[in-house]
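Morning. Coffee machine broken again, so started the prediction first thing and wrote up yesterday's gels while waiting. Chain of 264 residues, entered below exactly as on the submission form.
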Amino acid sequence: MIEGLEPGTLAFLALAGFAAGFIDAVVGGGGLVQLPALLVGLPGATPVQLLATNKLGSICGTSVSSVTYFRRIRPDLRTAVPLALAAFVGSAAGAALAFLISKEAFNPIILVVLVAVGAYTLLKPSMGQLQALRFGHARRRHLGTAVIIGLVVGAYDGALGPGTGSFFVFALVSALGYGFLEASAKAKIANLATNLAALVVFVPQGAVIWSVGLLLGAGNVLGGYLGARVAVARGSRFVRVVFVVIVLAFILKIGWDTWRQFTG
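Came back before lunch.
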């Protein structure tokens, strides 16, 4: 048993890790489940500890789902590699900025992200069903756009994180015209890079709560493996309902905590 945590809290975090890994592999945005779960389960932790521990759990799941996607989808590495390298650089820079985020600002920021990405998920139920690549005859422009996506979304992931997979998928679909599965495969490779870059910054600073992170990681591995297989076999529509329900639940919880923070 992890010292200081009740069995109920451990079960809650393990379940959150599984749900995050599964959802992240299918539609992206597993951090919208996992990071709020850490906020609820570890109320005494600092923002940097929460972010760093979240990254440890997430990288376990993204590693498994990335390999599964690569083996089954075979994404075009000519775009995926530059995207991932730019995401690594952006995430490392963002992680350095994470130490400046105060505890008082953390809940409101997470709440805004939850509402924004939850609304986006509701409003975009058929995103990426068909692939129609943009800049097909302008390879440099295509790669340049991918690099910009990697830097911007990577920086966000390093500094905060929730919804990164969804943002990668959204950007690849809307800006470059990829279909959902191809975008998801590239997003997983880029997300693996952002998680690794953030940990390169966080681990030397002693910010990771290893016992909790590894518990989340175990759940992420199982969820990521199952989620990637389901995504390839069945698509993502049925998961969206579960995803929205979970996000709404955390909006209510974090929203209530934020309300008490400013009124209590």
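Residues 7-263 form one domain. Going to sketch it on the whiteboard this afternoon.
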